[in-house]
Amino acid sequence: MDADELKRRYAAGERDFPAANLGRAKLIRAYLAGVNLFAADLSGANLAKAKLWGANLGGANLAKANLTRANLSCANLHEANLRGAKLNFAKLYGANLSGACYDDSTRFSRGFDPISRNMRKI
């Protein structure tokens, strides 16, 4: 599946894309509120300014993904791989980040405390 197919199917009303392979997909400003991308491969994907509120990204591989200014409010990121991801200015209000892993190269907004959100440093 590529970014265009995902957006087309989402626009047609489909929401479930578990384990989708979207590595390095260009989804800048994509509107994907409430999408189910459980355990999907989004490594290296560009999701800058994407609308992902309420999305299920539990167990997803978001390593080195660009989530700058993405809206992840109330999203499920439980046990997601966020190593090397860019989360600068991302909206994470109400997001479930418990068990999500990050490393020294993961970029968060100033003042964000991953430990208080039950994230794991790898």
The CATH class name reads: Mainly Beta
Secondary-structure arrangement, i.e. CATH architecture = 3 Solenoid
User: What fraction, in percent, of the residue positions are helical?
Assistant: under 10%
Strand fraction band? 5-15%
| CATH superfamily label | E3 ubiquitin-protein ligase SopA
N-to-C SSE string, H for helix and E for strand: HEEEE
Strand adjacency order, main sheet: 1-3
**Average of the residue pLDDT scores:** 98
Question: How much is the radius of gyration in Å?
Answer: 13 Å
Structural class: little secondary structure
What's the story with the biggest beta sheet? 2 strands, parallel
Shape: globular
- List how many beta strands DSSP finds: 4
- The number of distinct helices, counting runs of at least 4 residues, comes to 1
> Spans with pLDDT under 50 lasting ≥5 residues?
none
Cα separation of the termini: 29 Å
Number of domains as seen in the coordinates = 1
**CATH third-tier fold name:** Pectate Lyase C-like
